[in-house]
Amino acid sequence: MHAETTHLTHLLYLHGFRSSPQSAKAQQTRAWFATNYPEVVVEIPALPPSPHEAAQFMQAILNNWPQRSLAVMGSSLGGYYASWVSAQWHCPAVLLNPAVNPARDLQAYIGEQTAWHNPEEAFYFKPEYIEQLRELDCANNAATAPQLALIAQGDEVLDWQEMVQRYPHAKRIVLEGSNHALSDTFESHLPEIADFLYRLGQPASAI
């Protein structure tokens, strides 16, 4: 056992498909930590469309961070990526309506897409990205770090029951109603989410 108290020092926030660091949840997360845990570094990168390039990008950030005090948080496709990060770095993860099978669900989006927060910004979602998504699938890997999943039954994009089944060992907050963006409920759950992250998923008695 290490004698020193360990808490979160670095948080990586991963946005979803067609989203960006300008998303409401990303900005609310940054603001909450700036006010309540200003010493925590919160990184919210703009992820490239290629899952392979996104993985390399995430690795480059995480390789420069202290391994025992980092955590990851992701929304939708970012939640899928966050599960991969958690498995690779054995770090705590918060998953917000996480995509469970994006290789299946994003087949319909192959082609030119626009960004939600900047419709003038277009990108091309290539067919080979589907296989790249499969390569990041860690659904069959046992979780090696604490996870918290915030799941909305009213998600209009993803199947909430699939999310519940995908994360049987996670601490789960299942919301009646709400929506995929968690636009009406996310901010109210930020204190609990941030507390989980700050404690690196450990019980309060362990800190």
From TrEMBL:
Q: What is this protein called?
A: Esterase
Highest taxon above the source species? Bacteria
Species name: Lampropedia puyangensis
Q: Which InterPro entries match?
A: AB_hydrolase_fold, UPF0227/Esterase_YqiA
Q: Which Pfam families does this UniProt record tie to the protein? A: UPF0227
